[in-house]
Amino acid sequence: MLRINPNLSEICGIHTGDGYLRKRKNKIELDITGSTEEREYYDNYVIPLVNELFELNLVGRIYSKGTYGFVTTNSKFRIFNDLGFPYGKKSLRVRVPEEIFFSKDKLIYSSFLRGLFDTDGHLGFRKYYGNYKLFKKNNHHYPFVVLTTVSKRLAIEIKSMLGFLKIESFIYLYKPKNKRDNISYRIIINGISRVNNWMKIIGSKNSVKFSRYLVWKRFGFCPTNLTLQQRKDILKGDLDINSIGP
User: Taking the CB of residue 183, how many other CB atoms lie within 10 A of it?
Assistant: First the structure.
């Protein structure tokens, strides 16, 4: 069995966010897919990371459900179950693997959290409402990172890991109006210094998310609903950010 290292820890974070593990008789199937806009992230980072660690030659593809990534069968993927990931639906049962959580290793922690953020996290920016300067009222300038899960144990473990890394966060309990839906736990890191600290310690390899951060760092705000290509054009100077509506 592979020992926990930063690469395996990051893949565990990626699997926690976007992965699905199946057992078909003696075969272990791993499904890791995300948005088609994240193709660059999968082709340039996720798939090479998995290929290197498991000595495979995976190639990404678009699936009929409108996602991009890979689905493949290999007995080597049994390691995810050995680490505590369940076969089948994992949302309510998922937790940080014990070998990662009890490692108390900053690099192992940051790698796992980066993988989770890059697949299932969100970096956003808010306007201010009320008696504030026009810039703050008109532009999405206030940064926040959110990790959402329906697993209470995962939420508590994530917050504990963030505390170990000296990243301030809080958990917001969201109770849906439909009682048939699960309560969710939102781990929130908000504010300029905290988000900058996140990026310094954990960072992001997903250009869809990281490009938002780069636009915000350069201009002090980042419009919502932009495509990755639009943000790239803004950063290259080919698109005027002020020509885009809020």
Answer: 10
The CATH fold of domain 6-91: Endonuclease I-creI (3.10.28)
- Kindly report, residue by residue over 47-60, the tens digit of the pLDDT: 999 999 999 999 99
- Global confidence as pTM: 0.95
Check if the beta carbon of residue 127 is closer than 8 Å to that of residue 138. Answer: yes
Give the model confidence (pLDDT) of 151-207 as tens digits. 999 999 999 999 999 999 999 999 888 888 889 999 999 999 999 999 999 999 999
First to last CA, the chain: 50
CB atoms within 10 A of CB 238: 10
Domain ranges of the chain: 6-91
**CB-based contacts of 159: which residues, under 8 Å, 6+ apart?**
169, 170, 171, 187
Both tokens of 153, joined, read: 């144990």
Question: Which residues have C-beta within 8 Å of that of residue 89, sequence separation ≥ 6?
Answer: none
